[in-house]
Structures are given as structure tokens and as C-alpha cells.
Amino acid sequence: MRTRLIDDLVLDAVAAGATRVVLLGAGYDNRAYRLPALATTPVVETDHPATQQAKMRVVKARIRADRRAHVRFGPVDPSRQELPAAALDTAAPTVVTAAPTVVIWEAGPRSSRPPSSTIAQAEVKHAQGQ
């Protein structure tokens, strides 16, 4: 039910004008490839570099290039990096923070260590312009 609820909220936000989706701690989330409405919406997935390398191998092997072109990966080791430099830097081809953005942190509070939580909370505020 949680996944379906988040899917519905993301689709509602995109329908209402959100032009970007950011997945914090994306893991093996497949929302960017599974939801047709996101096929033309830029999606940035952030996660530990090792997790992202494994996921990128699977995605490259199983998802057609035209179905994955809208997805960018922002490798982040939250114990060493802050999120803006790695994924929300407007100089990098990832996310323009001034655009209406959906931020998903589905498993964050349960799975992240306190430093990750603190960084992610700060970056959500940064993305909201606070």
C-alpha cells in the first residue's frame, strides 16, 4: 500500500506541475521506469555509490535506452558527502532546484543513520528554498 500511495502522490504532483523527481536513497526503486507519466520527467536517484553501480548494471541490462534516458544518478556517500554537491548542484546536469520538484524519501527514516537523516532534511529545505 505504501508504494501505491507514494506512486499516486508523485503522479498527482507531476500532473499539478512538478517538473522533477528526486529519489533520496533510491536503492532498487523502479518508479522512474515503471510509471509511464515519469517517462518525460527528469528523475534523479541518489544513493551510495556501490548501490548505484549495482543498480545501473541491472538497469542497463534490462531497460531499453529510451526508457532510461530521463534518469540521472547522483552517487552520495552520506557519511562523507553532503547532498547538494553530489546531486542538487545546479551546475551539474541533474536537478534545477528552482523547478517544482517532488522529493521522495520512502525508506529514509527507517534505514538511514542519523548523519544521513540530518543531511537529507537539510537538503529538502535547500530544495524548497528555505
User: Got a strand count?
Assistant: 4
Major sheet characteristics: 4 strands, parallel
Q: Which residues sit in consecutive blocks of at least 5 with pLDDT less than 50? A: 89-96
Tell me the number of helical segments per DSSP (H or I, 4 or more residues long): 7
Q: What is the C-alpha radius of gyration, as a whole number of Å?
A: 14 Å
What's this model, at a glance?
The protein has 130 residues and is α/β, with parallel strands linked by helices.
Describe this structure in words.
With 130 residues, this protein is of the alpha/beta class. 45% of the residues lie in helices and 15% in strands. The protein is built from seven helices and four strands, in the order H-E-H-E-H-H-E-H-E-H-H. The protein has a four-stranded parallel β-sheet, with helices on both faces. Helix 2 links the parallel strand 1 and strand 2 (43-47). The longest helix is centred in the first third of the chain and has 14 residues, at 2-15.
Features:
transferase, 4-stranded parallel β-sheet, 4 strands, 130 residues
Secondary structure elements and pairings:
Blueprint: H1 2-15, E1 20-24, H2 31-34, E2 43-47, H3 49-62, H4 65-68, E3 71-75, H5 83-86, E4 101-104, H6 108-111, H7 114-127
Parallel strand pairs: 1-2, 1-4, 2-3
